[in-house]
Amino acid sequence: MIASKIDPSEEQREMIKSLQRSFYDKISTREADLEKAKSQKFKPGTYDEITKHIKNLRSHYEKLEHLLRFIENNPVTLEQLWPLTDKLQNYLKTDDTEDLEAELEQKYKDFNLPISKIMSNFPALNEEDQEVKKVLGKKLETKQMPSVVIKSESKPVEKGWNTKEALMKIAGKVEKVVEDIQDDEEEPEKIDLDWSKKQIDFAFNYPIRNDESAKSSLQMVLTPYPGHPSYPKKPMINPGLFSKFDLDTLFFIFYHQHGTYQQFLAAKELKAQGWIYHKKFQTWFQRSGEPKLTAQDREKGTFLYFDYETSWSQRRKADFEFEYSFLENDLL
């Protein structure tokens, strides 16, 4: 067994990132509901309710990003984070979120996070863009430029008529009409400079770490390095050998030989050694002691998990709730 490395700050980051993944999944689900609401008949107001819920979910996702930066530069304990993370988990499980919004705003204040006007990294809804275009189109239609009527008298055209002077007079009338229309238009919304400065200061004080933006380098080597002609071209697979491999080798085979029979045998051996696979996090877990809470669809307790993305080692996660719906059972 590889020695477990317990890093409180890493556990805090993992806890927040796990919540971010849950919020991202929830946003994707609600956006799918929004598409259904467009094509199917729903109760009146359903579309607006889903749209509002998506905006709130995006806002909380962004606040978690701010919180992730905050804990990089401020000492925070897990006990301080739990009240907020518990509220956010309840927020994801319930559809009636109005009461929780005020409670969450109070929790955000404890970490000096921006409460309102959170800008989302998610793209705006297409439907909203269409509505904006419709509104702008109506405004332009109602403010059409009035035509300039020039009455002409039946007089003979005088010799030496100054065309340039006449055009300048017409242009002056048109310019005056355009100025009148511009005066009638509403003034654009003023930019909140104080709020913008606050956002810039926050981003400067809590920058994103390099390892947070790094992507996983896991890949399958399709063209192996050429060996000696006497070596076998195909691997000799003996399922019995996998029981003799250590955990590091089994995890390496599982994460770096995707879609192969070796990956299946490695997963089968890991399960035989008491490891369970979480389909949502794509991570192997193992119970570390008796669970604190057991239910028909989940259990809660302390688990070991294999961190294949950052440290390639085992870590301990306390008070983790494992939902059985994410348990992989296809290895039987």
UniProtKB/TrEMBL annotation:
Compartments where located: Cytoplasm; Nucleus
Assigned keywords, A-Z: Coiled coil, Cytoplasm, Nucleus, Repressor, Transcription, Transcription regulation
GO cellular component, one term: nucleus
Major subcellular site: cytoplasm
Residue ranges occupied by any NOT2/NOT3/NOT5 C-terminal domain in the UniProt entry: 205-327
Domain of life of the native organism: Eukaryota
GO BP, sorted A to Z: regulation of DNA-templated transcription
Coiled coil stretches, renumbered: 47-74
Domain CCR4-Not complex component Not N-terminal positions: 13-113
Membership in a protein family: Belongs to the CNOT2/3/5 family.
Descriptive protein name: NOT2/NOT3/NOT5 C-terminal domain-containing protein
Species, as recorded: Stentor coeruleus
